[in-house]
Amino acid sequence: MPAVAPILAGDVQTGGPCDHWLPGHTAGPLPGRGDNSRMLTKFETKSNRVKGLSFHPKRPWILASLHSGVVQLWDYRMGTLIDRFDEHDGPVRGVHFHPSQPLFVSGGDDYKIKVWNYKQRRCLFTLLGHLDYIRTVQFHHEHPWIVSASDDQTIRIWNWQSRNCIAVLTGHNHYVMCAQFHPKEDLVASASLDQTVRVWDIGGLRKKTAQPGAGGDDARMSQGGGRMNTDLFGGGDAIVKYVLEGHDRGVNWASFHPSLPLIVSGADDRQVKLWRMNDTKAWEVDTLRGHVNNVSCVIFHPKQDLIVSNSEDKSLRVWDMSKRIGVQTFRREHDRFWILTAHPEVNLLAAGHDSGMIVFKLERERPAFATHGSQLYYIKERYIRVYDFSTQRDSALVAIRRNPSAAYNQGPRALAFNPAENAVLVQTDVEGGSYELYAVPKDAAGREVAPEAKRGFSAAAVFIARNRFALLDRSANQLIIKDLSNEVTKKVTSPLPTTDNIFYAGTGMLLCRSEEKVALFDVQQRSVVAELATPPIKYAVWSADMNRVALLSKHAIVVADKKLGGSCTIHETIRVKSAAWDDNGVLVYTTLNHIKYCLPNGDHGIIRTLEVPVYLTRVVGTTVFCLDREAKPRQIQIDPSEYMFKLALSHRKYDAVLAMIRNNQLCGQAIIAYLQEKGYPEVALHFVRDERIRFNLAIECGNIEVALQSAQELDDKDTWYRLGVEALRQGNHQIVEFSYQKTKNYERLSFLYLITGNLERLQKMLKIADMRGDVMGRFHNSLYLGDVAERLRILEEAGQTSLAYVTAATHGLAADAERLSEHLGELRPQLDTAQARLLVPPTPIMREDNWPLLTVSKGFFETLATKDSERAKGTSGAAAAAAAAAAMEEMDLGAVGAGWGEEDELGIGGAGEGGPQGGSDGGDAPAGGSADGGDGEGGWEMEDLEIPPEVAAEVASAAAAAGGEGAAFVAPSPGIPAVQRWQSKCNLAADQAAAGAFDTAMRLLTRQIGIVNFEPLKPYCLELYQGSQGVLPALPGLPALVAPLDRGWAGDVPRQDATAPALVYSLGQLEEQLKRAYRTVTEGKFSEALRLFNALLHVIPLLVVASRKEAEEVRELVTIARDYNIALRIELKRREVKDDPNRTAELAAYFTHCNLQRVHLALSLRSAMSTFFKLKQYNTCATFCRRLLELQPDEKMAAQARQVLAACEKNPSDAEQLAYDPRNPFDICSITFTPIYRGNKYVEDPYTKARFQPECEGQLSPVGDVAQVGLSASGLVSSPTQLR
């Protein structure tokens, strides 16, 4: 068996700075350089100690196993916890995803290996066999095997399909800390605290698995007996190939290289060792020194020649594998590192530490590039290259030299091109920020020798003119203008207090960025043209005509015009990567996994998904040009139909919209929902063939014709009811009548006949009710008709003799009244008929076929929708009333919409489908025909009327002027109410309350600051709601007009969408209330002052401020109100217990430890001084005197304090032992009014952060009386900037 002889520490010397490393110094090009490296963190969690990590091979998921026994599944791209698995008893040290199945395996201190299905969200089975803690588990990349390492000094290989142990690898004589399969060969590497790394050959196991009937191995393993004993003592199918000896202490980790015959190991001797192996032997190559504590984990980078290690010295180090020196060091302040893993496909690593984990990259992968005209300039492998979009020709332009001072991840960050002088400006992060200026010769293509660059230091560098470029000096907050010879021509103070980046904004113009805003700065005039509040901006992308700019931050895009006006913001949950403008003024941008678009009005959507992130360089028609992370130019085909349709719609280019509709380029629920949201349901009608959706859209846009046709196809009760409601809203009572007939809604039908004055139909409804045996229907109809005799008959038949007598006597039916009086006898009620009046229905003013409708022309799409519907259905194309009649009887009532018609009812209730004779309900027919069976009517009397010729001519001309198609007025769609927009757009509790969504506001406040008692907040919420709407009194008898008041309203903008409600509370108002409360405290009105401070605490959650600075002021206001609330309640409590002098003294002392204004603190100290002096607590009283004198009060108070201090110093002792220690800092529990000394346990009010004794958990906090003590909460959000 080949073995490697131990190599003493120090035998192998590595070149470079590592020869002289000192403990704590970093391996790097210069001593200490790597210490300040900034990790490119992509995702971070806070949790219990993380002991195991595993990336999913395809999805953006990572498993983290915790010391608490929980396994967490995270989406590191979205930053969300997907699931948690909690079945292990004790810490879980190993976890691993299966490479292709929806499985993962975990091993823990409970000696159990569990295999889980994450789709089913459960443990499938448990593998038992290890006798001590399980350190690592791993799936084989090809076979159904799991390898596990344990503190029982063995490594086991399991078949997870048969659920048996198929091999036990013995030989280590201490805990086995790690075991891994080789990614390609039949090898297993293990690391143990016996100071060795062992490499095991499992080729025999593979051969037996490949043999026919190989399952017999698993069966034999489960039979016990001799075979198991053989494996326990070292025989079997896995043998030791190498034993690597060289570490002086226990080895914690060993890893194979993914492709080379190398192994790397890390141990408690603080060293990382590199080993090489061949078919016959293995030997140590080098030792990497630098860690100052145990090395926890070490791996090879899967894509680059790097080794990454982490350690209990709270550092993570990156080593160059070829030079074998350290190139980067990342440190944490308090957390030891335990585990490290690399993503198999993507350039990502993850590390677990004491308080969570981090997912990070070692270097930035975005290539530096710039576009000009039809050419793309970019940097790849130390060359500036040029790519022609039209010819797709890619060529190297000029070589650039690597800065010797550059650290590992400090490559080119940005590139700017000057076409006038053919110059290139390259920005890097070297030495805190530097630039290189290259003048590229015209014949430079293909040159191998790099031209001499002009260099300098700057946080950012951009061209601003033909022969000028601007630099940012962060330390002096200056803009430095240089010419192309690198000479300073001008220095300008930055327009922002802290400018941290600059971007090109046109000739002589710059965009200056700070953390909260950008400023458009005219360098020549030294003036700010415009400012715009934004999240921290990373890139600025200008349109070709420089009229629009897209400002890209990590999770948002702000689109504005060239003066930073008309801005809109798009928020993304996944990181924004790049953007480019197409020729139509649409912004196309990419996130990690999508190509998306943004229209000028702020509407946005998805174009297509991406397999890998790309960086857009140009958009031409259906082709997107981009660079991938290897800086390779690519072309991606996209379908712009969706955003071109929306763009045409927003520009009101209806001919283009119509062409897209007829070409069937678009379909789907997303387009329909968009059209509904934007107030174009009539356009959505063209995309829909489903009758249910067509009906809903037609109702929304008020198109009664299409709605009626769809209702006839659907023919269900709910559809007819909704059609009736919409027709009634428009005043088209013929369709209302038809709808009620279809649903057999007799009560509504009777009332409709009442309000339209159709007494004849009402009489027939009375007969129908009689035939149906509907007593209440008969009574209502007789009441509507004023038929007293019928009502009397109904009451008598129903046994209501008393009511029948009252009816007869009241209405003067003497004979009937006398008859009923005799029947009742003594039970006859006494009546006073002096005030009685006859109840009869009002005489109708008009008896038209429909109520008069305004004659207007229909819109472009409404007319088109009706025509399309007519073609599809084959109907005649008359107005809505005619369509209703056509469903019952073939009649032409097209002139009804113009306000003319016969006296008789035309075509409604005829003997057609659904009518009284044609229907299947017989005597239940609601109106018309011969429902009573014996009227003998000869149908409707349709007489020819002699109309004077001049009247006919006048009517004809009026009809022509009104337009043939648009005879009937169609009510416009109501649109989306402003309150509804507020509720959907706004994310702050105050905005939701002002919009009337009190339940949403309450949920937000409970989640953010733990409020559970909303009764004190109720009046303020109602004030917000009332204050967000203006009320204008209307005409007498009409309701008032309510207008929403929008916070973003501007008088000079003609049309504005609702953004956020106007609020009645402001920070200035609360500051005034705070001053008033201060004055009340000074006046000694403590109860009134407490009420004012509580009111502050009640209003603050319903406050919205504009900036983060103001949000900090709000938090400070909460702190002030909290401190005064506690202080005032202590003082009021002291006055309640005045009969207990010791308790009074303690409370007086606690009062002095509240954070109060200087004058109030002086008054509290004087009060405590007096109280303690009277109780002969001279020693403690002296401390109050000294504190009072330190505040430098007025002369009278100071003189008194000096006198008392002199008296106390003569006898520095206390008469009683009180629960007060002035030397030990403490907080005051304002429920128990006892001190909570530093170091003692406490619970907090999540809103004010007031502290309480642990036994108070779950109670309502008296500081504001709104929050629950001990409830977990995310924190108060009072500004939109806190949500970015």
Automatic annotation (TrEMBL):
Membrane topology: Peripheral membrane protein
Region span, Disordered: 900-942
PROSITE patterns reported for this sequence: WD_REPEATS_1, WD_REPEATS_2, WD_REPEATS_REGION
Keyword Repeat: yes
Positions annotated as WD repeat: 43-84, 85-126, 127-168, 169-202, 244-285, 288-329
Domain COPA/B TPR: 655-811
Cellular compartment(s): Cytoplasm; Golgi apparatus membrane; Cytoplasmic vesicle, COPI-coated vesicle membrane
Domain COPA/B second beta-propeller: 382-628
Biased composition (Gly residues): 907-933
Pfam families (UniProt xref): B-prop_COPA_B_2nd (PF04053), COPI_C (PF06957), TPR_COPA_B (PF23953), WD40 (PF00400)
Molecular function terms, GO-annotated: structural molecule activity
Coatomer alpha subunit C-terminal domain boundaries: 875-1284
Xref: InterPro entries: Beta-prop_COPA/B_2nd, Coatomer_alpha_WD-assoc_reg, Coatomer_asu, Coatomer_asu_C, Coatomer_complex_subunit, TPR_COPA_B, WD40/YVTN_repeat-like_dom_sf, WD40_PAC1
Residues in coiled coil: none
GO biological process terms, semicolon-separated: endoplasmic reticulum to Golgi vesicle-mediated transport; intra-Golgi vesicle-mediated transport; intracellular protein transport; retrograde vesicle-mediated transport, Golgi to endoplasmic reticulum
Annotated keywords: Cytoplasm, ER-Golgi transport, Golgi apparatus, Membrane, Protein transport, Repeat, Transport, WD repeat
One GO cellular component term noted in the UniProt record for this chain: Golgi membrane
Function as written in the Swiss-Prot or TrEMBL entry: The coatomer is a cytosolic protein complex that binds to dilysine motifs and reversibly associates with Golgi non-clathrin-coated vesicles, which further mediate biosynthetic protein transport from the ER, via the Golgi up to the trans Golgi network. Coatomer complex is required for budding from Golgi membranes, and is essential for the retrograde Golgi-to-ER transport of dilysine-tagged proteins.
Assembly description: Oligomeric complex that consists of at least the alpha, beta, beta', gamma, delta, epsilon and zeta subunits.
Protein name as catalogued: Coatomer subunit alpha
Protein source organism: Chlorella vulgaris
